[in-house]
Specification:
single chain; mainly alpha; Monooxygenase; 4 helices; 0% strand
Length: 90
């Protein structure tokens, strides 16, 4: 494996790990139907950052950055929606 391929694999692995990091929290919220301890402000700031990373990926024409950050944005938006839904029920 050449250096560029190795670097790309590391980048993809880092993006996947970062992307799936919200999954355990999403699963917990769905199971418990509670979101009182979730900071919506944090999630909104994170969403802005992910949007900027996605834009950066488009500027660089870097598919791994684009794909992993779009997936992260989808999970983040899911967390925000669940947070709003379940905070209203508490």
């Amino acid at each position: 494996m050449d250096e560029n391929s190795f670097t790309e694999v590391i980048g993809i692995a880092a993006g996947v790990c970062t992307s799936i990091s919200l999954l355990p929290q999403i699963i917990k919220i769905i199971r418990e139907k509670k979101a009182k301890d979730i900071s919506l402000f944090y999630l909104i700031i994170l969403l802005v950052g992910l949007g900027l990373w996605t834009y950066y990926g488009f500027l660089r024409k870097d598919i791994p950055i684009i794909a992993t950050n779009i997936f992260s944005m989808v999970l983040n938006i899911t967390m925000i929606v669940l947070g709003v839904i379940f905070k209203k029920k508490e």
